[in-house]
Design a protein that fits this description.
The strands form two sheets. Strands 7, 8, 9, 10, 11, 12, 13, 14, 15 and 16 form a ten-stranded mixed β-sheet that branches. The chain has 487 residues and is α/β, with parallel strands linked by helices. Helices cover 36% and strands 23% of the residues. The two termini are 45 Å apart. The mean pLDDT is 95. The protein has helices at 14-29, 49-63, 71-78, 93-108, 125-135, 156-166, 185-195, 198-201, 226-251, 260-273, 282-285, 416-426, 435-453, 470-477, and strands at 4-9, 37-43, 81-85, 114-118, 144-149, 175-178, 209-217, 286-296, 299-301, 319-325, 335-341, 348-355, 373-379, 383-392, 398-407, 459-464. The chain contains 14 helices and 16 strands. The structure holds 6-O-phosphono-beta-D-glucopyranose.
Length: 487
Amino acid sequence: MDSMTFVLFGATGDLAKRKIYPALFNLFLDQKMPQSFSIIGLGRRELSDGAFQTNVEHSLRTFSRRFIEDKAKLKEFIDAFRYSQLDVTDVEGYQELLNLVQRRERELNIPENRLFYLSVAPEFFDVIASNIKESGLGTTNGWKRLIIEKPFGHDMVSAQDLNQRLRKSFSEEEIYRIDHYLGKTMVQNLEALAFANPVLQSLWNNQHIANIQITASETVGVEDRAGYYDQAGAIRDMFQNHMLQMLMMTTMHLPKTTSAADIRNEKRKVMESLRPLQKEDVGSQVVRGQYSDGEMNHEPVVGYREEPGVDSSSFNDTFVAARLWIDNDFWRGVPFFIRTGKRMKEKSTRIVIEFKNPVKELYGSDQQTEPNLLIVNINPNEGISLQLNSKNPLKNGKIEPISIDFSTGAKDIPEAYELLIFDALRGDSTFFAHWNEVELSWKWVQPVLEAFEENTVPLHLYRSGSMGPDASDELLKEDGFYWWEYQ
Ligand code: BG6
């Protein structure tokens, strides 16, 4: 792996402390960092290198999944960090940054490979990218890469606008858009599951699949993010990115190779085949919900509108369920049900593939068989279950569903940020969102945003601690299905 400089904007922020430093540290422990590396943290406040290094060590002790008391090893890692104060809007300040980057490149004898990680509010993405270019930081003899986090735009037009601005300083191949769901091991595993198993591959189509359900339920409420969340809602916060990425990963067709280009090409094709939604149809295909008060873990909790910082008459969506159709030869006629929400009964992300059941009445109408299910548990317990029908010898041979379960069982698996940062360091963009995917996702979501904004669809309240509004169950009932909940 190439030696490089990791330039982190937002180095004193929450994401850096909780995710980025621990990820870099775990990569270092696993010998997955380059031979030589320099890490330059940037922030608004004044901080000495020593104080910054102490903060980094503190974040490792607090948030890393592993820690070591080997002082020499720890020092080797921490010594790579330097800090510089920067007002990201001030182009002059970037000169000083360039000097620091170059000085460290000389000291460590590393080539001009530079990775810029923008862990800052999205309104700064384009000014930083442009200042990197103007200052000469982006003019290197080696490679340069840009990592950005969601939200990528607020709607279709703002996303296009942002992309155009970024593209003035970085090419598409140099931009790594993090969607941390693509860093989850079981999301990355979907491709292998469908394509490395001929048994499943032959069933992965509309001949055999009745419907697919993708759920990401959370128990937390808005927390202290009302300022952002009340503008974003579940549709922008989860649906436009994480949920549609999981849909693409589940339904893409077998790529020619598993290269980033081929996989992203297949994902794009899925999005191009997604049946567009007309604004007037949003009400019949999408359910908008908002949590009211209720109980979580036997403790009473307030409704969304009573949360600190939330407008008491807010119509913001904290839950979205939708029915989607992919109009291509593989998936025509199969409904995809997707739902996500806060303050739901369980923290769980999972995909349920329900197979068609032509033998429902094989043993007569009083002994109907259950459909086969393939359940992919993404979070919190990574694993796979296959539900089959089998005779129970203890019940006179009654047909009952049995479950064949696999769970990784490992507590210590790499976190999403570890996998993603490692890929970015290697220049592998497979599990980053390509602009085509982002744009097509906004395109599908746009009429939903408008219908929500214009309030032309109902807002269903649901009790905190439930599985969302009844309207979300009704959506499936219309097609003769129901949500497969946790057993
Ligand atoms: C983030 C959203 O992208 O994903 C949060 O902004 C949400 O609102 C989080 O809580 C969920 O991620 P995970 O990995 O806990 O499922």
